[in-house]
Design brief:
This protein has 312 residues and is mainly beta. Helix content is 12%, strand content 41%. A 5-stranded antiparallel β-sheet has the order 3-2-5-9-11, with no helix packed on it.
Length: 312
């Protein structure tokens, strides 16, 4: 009669022994786990600029192959402070919130690019682009992060967007006759590489163009055009197409040759950040509009945004 009880008791003992062994094995296994924190260093990047830098996004590219590409936001002044894994990085910072542009291929510093957006305006002759907002490029070519140390960099931001100012002087009382003046500027760079800051898609630029409008300033009309660059080639003519609407309801068109004006301003392939071109506009007795180009000295970019109307 006592055998069943004895059998149950033996089973209970074996069950307890097995549980004890399992717990002991788990405890030993947990004791063998060692967590090692990856070595890190502190990074401070403070761009130096006379301009007010907007919030930018920092893109870190590890050249040691230890980590994947990643991105971190700056503070409200475009600065970055943080802790990164040790290694060597190349860095691109740019204001990705800029309008009328598209940032693409950002997973590699070699391919990272900003493109002008496509305009809803259509043309049978050109691909129409939007005028890009101000886009900045901040580059750190060699950021070395060592364990426990702080590395500080003070790169100089570069404004990738160029500003072309056109000042039209209306001769012979033409300012009282013209009610609107618009135009098309072909030969526009469609994109810029963020790391090298060189124009991209240059071979396509003769087919690219932007629309613009003018605003009245006294007896003059002005247009402010933002772009990434203009095509500059000895075999290419940089033209400017003007459309004038008169107060009697008639319209007139004329084309200007800006080749010399732009070539004189472009220094070894580098386009100035701001270029001003003056144009004298006259009308003949038979109603033909004529224009003559006068080049003004170019100046560096200013902090304030250019005035005028941008035609999307």
């Amino acid at each position: 009669m006592r055998q069943p009880y004895t059998h149950i008791r033996k089973c209970s003992v074996w069950f307890m022994v097995i549980c004890y062994l399992l717990i002991a094995n788990y405890a030993c296994t947990r004791a063998d786990v060692v967590y090692i924190e990856s070595p890190k260093g502190r990074v401070e990047i403070y761009p130096t600029s006379e301009h007010i830098l907007p919030v930018v996004q920092y893109h870190f590219y590890n050249t040691d192959g230890k980590t994947e590409y990643f991105q971190l936001d700056s503070d409200n002044n475009g600065n970055f402070e943080g802790t990164l894994l040790t290694g060597t990085y190349r860095v691109i910072a740019t204001n990705t919130s800029a309008s009328h542009v598209l940032f693409d291929e950002m997973d590699s510093y070699e391919t990272a690019i900003v493109k002008a957006g496509l305009s809803p305006n259509t043309s049978a002759d050109y691909t129409m682009l939007l005028q890009p907002d101000s886009v900045y490029s901040v580059i750190v070519e060699n950021l070395v992060v060592t364990e426990g140390d702080t590395v500080r960099q003070e790169p100089v931001p570069v404004l990738l967007t160029k500003h072309l100012e056109l000042v039209f002087t209306m001769q012979d009382g033409l300012d009282t006759k013209v009610v609107s003046m618009t135009g098309v500027l072909p030969g526009i760079y469609p994109a810029v590489r963020l790391y090298t800051r060189a124009g991209a898609g240059i071979d396509q630029s003769p087919q690219m163009a932007v629309n613009f409008e003018t605003v009245v300033k006294g007896d003059k009309r002005e247009a402010h055009i933002s772009l990434f660059g203009v095509h500059n080639d000895p075999d290419y003519t940089n033209s400017l197409e003007l459309n004038l609407t008169m107060n009697d309801g008639t319209s007139s068109k004329t084309t200007l040759d800006l080749t010399k004006a732009l070539s004189d301003a472009i220094n070894e392939g580098t386009i100035p950040s701001k270029l001003s071109i003056s144009v004298d506009v006259t009308i003949t007795d038979d109603g033909i509009i004529k224009a003559a180009v006068n080049v003004e000295d170019w100046i560096e970019e200013e902090e304030s945004e250019p005035e005028g109307i941008r035609e999307g």
